[in-house]
Design a protein that fits this description.
UDP-n-acetylglucosamine1-carboxyvinyl-transferase, Chain, alpha+beta, binds uridine-diphosphate-N-acetylglucosamine, four-stranded mixed β-sheet, 2 domains
Length: about 425
């Protein structure tokens, strides 16, 4: 099995462009299933989750042409409403195919989704929202058999009990071609929701208010094909910034939308980093030794992102003082802590709270990626550790970071895959 070998202690240095957002590409690819015609998506990252989304589209009868970071989806020959179980299990985002498949075919048959093990990740809000829009859903033996009660989804008022990103996406896509208007209250406000709405609107949809907690969708008859560029990946950008912070390096991260990282900048500064933020790039210089970040609570956007919790924990491991993490989004998102402790970190977990007492140095060790963001946290720790770190189980990291060893090598890191 492939591993990353990292020799720690080398400050990152240089400039790096950030690839397209995984969490935006996946719902947009799902939405493409409800489009009549051709979708051309640019800046679509070359990641295993994107491969999985393309496989789902192929399994539905869509024609996919992929060249580097451009994906063309042609739904002309779409003739199936069934997503095979092994593809559903590949990733959690596969559930976002439910709305678009039903919108296009009137029916959908899928199983429960897989994805990172972050504790129970129910899909009740997705199902309740789509039921309210007129989808009959029968659950039997892990299979969801779904059929529209009428020809189309029918617009309604949906109030989410939690601003779930995935459920908001599913509902927006379904509502786009519903009969009448849909109002979503307590909608997720993540930038990826705005990207999805921009894509749908480019296809002729009428989605208003994306990025705010109340979204209004005027249903249109059908969606037409378009050409669209996916937004940059804000979590990948945050990860590279963490890499500079933990190694005392100096880097510029380019091709980003820096305002999407506003919840992180004050924390970097609090920890002793120097920053210069411009609209599409950020320069960061890490200090000799980081200071602790105090208490970090993961929250829906615009709060501190749950996806940045593990990378942040890695950099806190070597910061001077105590850092406290409160994980409010997922129940079991501290699996990386045990691996960081193998490298000499001092972490105590109490339910949703993690207490990190900063140590002067981490030491290279053989560690295993436990999930996507937990895996990248180990890479960050390895960049700062004394000696060599090997990180195994790279399938998790490859779900969200395009050739991570190549990007980090460009910044001067000693890292290779074998
Ligand atoms: C979440 C993150 C998103 C991140 C993505 C990938 C939040 C709010 N969402 O999105 O920013 O990019 O993971 O790691 O930070 N839930 C239910 N029922 C549902 C759906 C969700 O109870 O039907 C719960 C989940 O169990 C979880 C919370 O709501 O505790 C957040 O879920 P949701 O936003 O839907 O997750 P993702 O869409 O995966």
């Amino acid at each position: 099995m492939k591993k990353l070998h990292i020799t720690g202690g080398i400050p990152l240095n240089g400039e790096l462009s950030v690839h397209g957002a995984k969490n935006s590409s996946l719902p947009i690819l799902a939405a493409a299933a409800s489009v009549h015609g051709k979708t051309i998506l640019h800046n679509c990252p070359q990641l295993s989750d994107v491969d999985a989304a393309c496989e789902i589209l192929s399994s539905l009868g869509c024609r996919i042409i992929r060249t580097a970071t451009t994906v063309e989806v042609d739904t002309e020959g779409m003739d199936s409403y069934h997503v095979p179980e092994h593809l559903m299990r590949e990733m959690r985002s596969s559930i976002v195919f439910l709305g678009p498949i039903a919108a296009r075919m009137g029916k959908a048959q899928i199983s429960f989704p897989g994805g990172c093990e972050l504790g129970p990740r129910p899909i009740d809000l997705h199902l309740a929202g789509l039921r309210q829009l007129g989808l009959n859903i029968q659950e039997e033996h892990g299979i969801l058999d779904c059929e529209l009660r009428q020809d189309k989804f029918v617009g309604t008022h949906i109030s989410l009990s939690f601003p779930s990103v995935g459920a908001t996406e599913n509902i927006i896509i379904a509502a786009a071609t519903a009969e009448g208007d849909t109002i979503i209250s307590n909608a997720a406000q993540e930038p990826e929701i705005i990207d999805l709405a921009n894509f749908l609107n480019a296809c002729g949809a009428k989605v208003y208010g994306a990025g705010k907690s109340c979204i209004v969708v005027h249903g249109v008859d059908r969606l037409h094909g378009t050409e669209f560029t996916v937004m940059p990946d804000r979590i990948v950008a945050a990860t590279y910034l963490c890499g500079a912070a933990i190694t005392g390096g100096e880097i510029t991260v380019t091709d980003i939308q820096s305002e999407q990282l506003n919840s992180l900048f004050p924390l970097f500064k609090k920890m002793g980093c120097q920053l210069k933020e411009e609209h599409d790039k950020v320069w960061i210089k890490g200090p000799q030794r980081l200071r602790s970040c105090g208490t970090v609570r993961t929250m829906p956007y615009p709060g501190f992102p749950t996806d940045a919790q593990a990378p942040w924990m890695a950099i806190s491991c070597v910061a001077d003082g105590t850092s406290v993490f409160v994980e409010n989004i997922f129940e079991s998102r501290y699996k990386h802590a045990g691996e960081l402790m193998r490298m000499g970190a001092n972490i105590r977990i109490e339910g949703r709270v993690a207490i990190v007492e900063g140590v002067k140095t981490l030491y290279g060790a053989n560690v295993e990626a436990t999930d996507l963001r937990g895996g990248i946290a180990l890479v960050l720790a390895g960049l700062s550790a004394q000696g060599e770190t090997t990180v195994s189980n790279l399938c998790h990291i490859d779900r969200g970071y395009e050739q991570i060893e190549k990007s980090l090598s460009l910044l001067g890191a000693k890292i290779y895959r074998e």
